[in-house]
Design goal:
Layout: H1 4-7, H2 16-33, E1 45-49, E2 62-66, E3 72-74, E4 77-78, H3 81-91, E5 97-101, H4 107-119, E6 124-128
Parallel strand pairs: 1-6, 2-5, 5-6
Antiparallel strand pairs: 2-3, 3-4
């Protein structure tokens, strides 16, 4: 009498536990094999001030304006972002840098400028309003 062989299915059953083990091993492998993001941090102090509380100093500041289209001007002269820090270092060494986003300036443009200035070692940066 063979009752079991009659109801037995022909396709093999794949267990769920080995599948979970394989997924877990792959997860651990990719976590160990991947490189984590390299967050570069740098020291940069930014103070926000308006014109009424602007500090008086002996050196004239470098005023960097960022408009809504992302165009950057340094004391009125149009400057590409990749040459901004070099121009500030060359023409305004030691002077404070005032970042002035003009109405409609995108925050991402401001962050790009701050990132470039910080990466090139310019630390005396103030954020002023229009």
């Amino acid at each position: 009498m063979q009752l079991r062989s009659r109801y037995r299915s022909s396709s093999p059953v794949i267990g769920l536990t080995p599948l979970i083990d394989v997924v877990f091993i792959l997860l651990v492998f990719f976590m160990l094999a991947s490189s984590f993001l390299d967050w570069r941090g740098y020291e940069m102090s930014v103070t926000v001030q308006d014109k009424s509380t602007a500090r008086k100093s002996d050196t004239s500041p470098a005023i960097v304006r960022i408009d809504g289209s992302g165009a950057i001007t340094l004391n009125g002269d149009s400057t590409p972002l990749d040459k901004l820090a070099a121009r500030i270092t060359r023409d305004h060494a030691g002077a404070p840098v005032h970042l002035q986003p003009v109405n409609g300036a995108k925050l991402q443009s401001l962050v790009h400028v701050m990132d470039v200035l910080g990466r090139d070692g310019i630390k005396n940066v103030d954020l002023i309003e229009e």
